[in-house]
Queue: 4 jobs
Job 1
Amino acid sequence: MMNVNKNLQKWMLTRLNLLLSSVLALLGFSSCEGIDGPGDYPCLYGTPYTHFDVKGTVQNADGQALNGVNVTVKSVYKGEGVEYPRQIDIVETGVDGKYKSFGSWSGFNERYTLRVVVDDPSGVYESDSTDVKLDRTTEGENEWCWGTDLGTADFTLKKK
């Protein structure tokens, strides 16, 4: 009889543990252990991010600045031969043909890149795009912000 009670007690504690773990997981709690054990990673909830600044100039083949060209900045995840772009920002070039886009993104993974696409709304010039190499200009402020990345993308658009 004593052995049955111990088995029943063990079974009940196992079920209670499973129930409590499920409830805590639904509420957003988890253990703070890393892959190799405690202390590998800071215990954070959410996704760390990086600030970015992308700037450049858009001109025609004659070197003249193009005003009012749409510049779209996208975050592109490259995985298993497929790309998943996500639009982050759209800006226009000024009278000097220059643009600047800034923001934040969770770009800590080497599979992410920033893509800049330029499009002339007047239809005179062909669209163009490039993946921008970002350089870390400042290190992270804390565990959440991993720093600021800076990139430059200049374009020379051809007539259609």
Job 2
Amino acid sequence: MSEYCIGTAKDTIDTEEILDFANMVFSMSSGSIDFRRTLPKAYLAKRAMVPTHHLIKEEGRIKALIDVYPGELRLDKESLSYGYIGTVSVHPRARSKGYMIELMKKAEGQLRRDGADFILLDGNRHRYQHYGFEKAGMKYCFNITRDSIRHFVNSHNRECGQKDKIYFEFVDSVEHEAVDIMYDLYQKRHVTARHDKEEFYLCLCGWEANTYAVMMDDECIGYMNTTAEDDNVYEFALKDNSQLSAVIWAFMQEMEPHELAVNVGMDEVEEISILDELSDYYTLNMSHQMKILNYESVLRFMLMWKQQAEGELCDGSYVIGVEDIQTNYRLSIKNEVVCVEQTADEADVVYSALELIRTLTTSYYFHEVRKKGSPLRKAPQGWFPLPFYLPVTDAF
């Protein structure tokens, strides 16, 4: 006999039991893991009340679990509410009982009742397409080798002349004196997803990452968040992007990775230009998997995101139909004011929910727009693809 329940730190559910279950299931398939250390933003004892734990029990013992971490994207005064699904786990002896299907429905139902605009998760794409999720957004990963940056420095010595003055301090506590400056720099991103300085710091600690304050003349000029091996930069921010080349050169000299990968979203236009000059090559990947619950809010937010990242977008309108819910939405811009609303007008293009996410937010757009007679060619120039990107540090 199974029962569904929700566990939070406010209830009598033992969160240690939840963590023990998740650690056991994931360790059986992915090697040893300790979620409290891996995701402190959600599983430190003092933050156990943040995620919602959706559980199925048999005879009082957990057999399946989905956790939902609440989030809010902010762009100026605009915001979107979302839930990030993670720690998806089913006991090996309880599989094929439909528990995951039931928990996914319960989690989505709760998010809809809470007014969430969309849901995120990561994992097997074709597994989660069954639940209405599709790959969304784009990120660039620039790969920089020692030889490449050495040659770059030799030919751009004047621009990298500050290298010897730059050094890195490991940030091991939210009390580190550089964290205030780091958090201020984070808040200058086009879109943010962390509510306060503590959450900002704990996000940087996720996935056993390293965080460094970038220092010059005893002043914090930025930060870098990297893998434990210091060969992949998840996230960075500098007071002055003109120093980016010198910072990366100094970092590779000090940490000595043979090759450094640097990740940025498609909205980070200035950073992309600099990293393209530095790198040997780059790859273009999708960001996370998304299910849209509120099309008006999400499409409007993304179009505003594009406008802020790239400057003024041209005036115009375009009607998109969502086949699954038989609803059309008019996207319009007039005098820099973005509007998205339901309309009875005929759609310029109609997509299923999955097609809409894949086509309008990923590089697949460039394939579709090149097709002969593509209705996307009627869209106002420069509107698509729409931006979406969250750093690994915001994943759950």
Job 3
Amino acid sequence: MRMVSIASGSSGNCIYIGSDSTHILVDAGISNKRIQQGLKEIGLKGEDLSGILITHEHSDHIRGLGVLARKYGLPIYATPGTIRELSGKKELGDYDASLYCQVQPDCSFQVGDLKVLPFSIDHDAAQPVAYRVCCGRKQVAVATDMGHFDSYIIEHLQELDAILLESNHDVRMLETGPYPYPLKRRILGDHGHLSNENAGRLLTHILHDKLKKILLGHLSKENNYEELAYETVRLEIDHGDTPYTSRDFSISVAGRDRMSEIVYI
């Protein structure tokens, strides 16, 4: 099993997860050209994909969806609320509505040899979810666009081998930056985005001996930067109520405009 971020940031998100025989994307928020380039770097083509998991309907998660759907006829897995929103987005163009496959939070489904579990997140979208993907005993998760975390989120992120976790913004940068006040309130609210500090605090609840890789993702272009996200998360782990230190784990940042390392599980 392997996972790689093709792109992750406030301007576009697309994550690959796959086994030897099954290949899926979590979101398609970048151009088809960039998606194809990313797939090529890991030895795949668009026609090798088995489906696309959509977390929610915001443009930075669906920008390339219409082209992929038309070109390859891929199944599109999303919640009923997300599908309803996608169906009304003219910017995606026309594609076969029968490609939609409805999924429900906390109800797992199979895509090839991958078992997928969607779980609910709090974000200002119709019916957003994060995804946990298993192949045999190996398990990874993509969890972004969360205004906050609670015991439900913590429970769904236990015993992972790898995770891509949102570390969207630095609170001080956001508060003093150029965004209008209502947008700042939205991002900082319970249906906004996870800050660097909260990403680190969430990690203290899910660290365990077999967690091989932590990718920090969905960084804001205006209110964060890679070194700050990394150092803030590292300090939260080191100062948190956990027997581990940040040096016990491989932690890196998934870039906005570049592929991450390939995480082999």
Job 4
Amino acid sequence: MNKNTRLITIAVDGYSSSGKSTMARRLAAAVGYRYIDSGAMYRAVTLYALDNGLISTDGEPDKAAIVSALPEISIDFAVQPDGTQHTLLNGVDVETEIRRLRVSNAVSPVAAIAEVRRALVAMQKKMGERKGIVMDGRDIGTVVFPDAELKIFVDASPETRAMRRFKELVEKGSQVSYEDVLSNVVHRDHIDTTRDESPLRRAEDAISLDNSLMSLEEQDAWLLKQFNKVLQFG
């Protein structure tokens, strides 16, 4: 746990495949905070919907059926021996499944359902009640934790983000093309920024970070600098 007596809330928002989850997870580990991947929660709901036939073959979610199923969906996180965190859906480890392109292609329309967002936002707020948390997503600094002491908004070009995601999927054994991944990134950007409920936008008091040309080490150093500034100056 962080040696500092003062605990804060850190919100990391940004576009899909911008690297926000990696940087948020690494920052949490560096300062001894709990890390929560809010995007994994929406992916878990999407996986449940896909596996239970609540999304049509053309990708259209059955909103009423998904909303009705929400009480049956339990989401939790389990820390692994190597320190990584896996997502549990109704007690089952679904970390690998929720990262596949099948889920990526369906998650934005599901995440745009107002009732789904409200249910998961309530869970996320509960998780952050004691502070000492780093959470990443689309609406963390604007909706979930509008009073977060440190807010970061991450961006990179669609092409850069698609290439990162493509390499990640290939390394995990997925058979995908860069063109399909880029199309998915652009499509998700459109849905995330234009949905009625909690659209993706930078909070007025968020610090912007374009990490297109940054290494992981450079990101880590930059984030720690922002963290220490907040602790020092409030």
